[in-house]
Specification:
69 residues, mainly beta, Ubiquitin-like (UB roll), 5 strands, globular
Length: 69
């Protein structure tokens, strides 16, 4: 299946990723080489949990979590 990912961190980037059918948001994040705890995923403006299964043609926005002390 094909998923479009919009990465929002220091720079904005859009990628098209091919994943296995039934892949989750967590699998998407890991396929990109990112740490799941460092990103918030949204779909159609709503947060989605990392265990949510994706569907072919989905568009997911990943927003970098920034923390500091």
């Amino acid at each position: 299946m094909i998923v479009t990912v919009h990465l929002h961190s220091v720079k904005r980037e859009t990628r098209t990723i091919e994943l296995e059918n039934g892949a989750t948001v967590d699998a998407l994040i890991r396929t990109l080489g990112l740490l799941p705890d460092s990103w918030i995923a949204t779909r159609e403006g709503e947060p989605v949990p990392t265990d949510r299964k994706l569907e072919d043609g989905d568009e997911v926005k990943l927003i970098s979590v920034v923390s500091g002390g």
